[in-house]
């Protein structure tokens, strides 16, 4: 069947994505309680007990809120780098030693024919990462929670069939918003979050004729609008890469899952 994925939810209240190649199902982040995770999976006719492994991007609560409980309930291995594990050990409770798997940044893990590679990103966490997942020639990149898109990150995610890409905020909305300046400065900084405009510019550098869908993720509920994010990214893409007619900009949601996206097997 190739590879398919669903963004179960994305935003400051919680994040989780499932990737399935027909034999193996991996879960990227567990930003909700185990009960909520089960409900989100049920929307996509997916049994929580069918998950084979969990990949962690970083230790912020909107990515690991239900990690400990979910992993213990279903006896699942958790993959994270050592610095992230140091933070997780303080936050998620006791995990069976056999389920604590160290995947160093830049490392590769294979789950049957599903190949997963991590890469470092810039965010105010211990050692945050994004992931590229491969099934044959198919490639999915998941990259959120980063202050800027470095050339190394661009190199990793270039030529993806699909991406889950952060479009966190509109800069003008954030600047006039109600947050204290200290928080605004964090979000706007190199270890904060990617703006709509920055995401659009980065996308132009990494997409190819192979790239069919980009899921706009981790939207701020206070300083962004889905229509605005889509319009901003689309305008930049059309200006810089007007030939990219095949590209679909897809929504993600803070309260429900996206439909399964099945990547082309060709």
UniProtKB/TrEMBL annotation:
MF term (GO), any: hydrolase activity
Highest taxon of the lineage: Bacteria
InterPro entries xref list: Metallo-B-lactamas, RibonucZ/Hydroxyglut_hydro, WalJ/YycJ-like
Coiled coil: none
SUPFAM superfamilies from the UniProt entry: Metallo-hydrolase/oxidoreductase
Keywords: Hydrolase
Keyword Hydrolase: yes
Catalytic activity: 3',5'-cyclic UMP + H2O = UMP + H(+); 3',5'-cyclic CMP + H2O = CMP + H(+)
Domain Metallo-beta-lactamase: residue ranges: 13-178
Pfam family, one: Lactamase_B_2
Known function: Counteracts the endogenous Pycsar antiviral defense system. Phosphodiesterase that enables metal-dependent hydrolysis of host cyclic nucleotide Pycsar defense signals such as cCMP and cUMP.
Name of the featured protein: Metallohydrolase
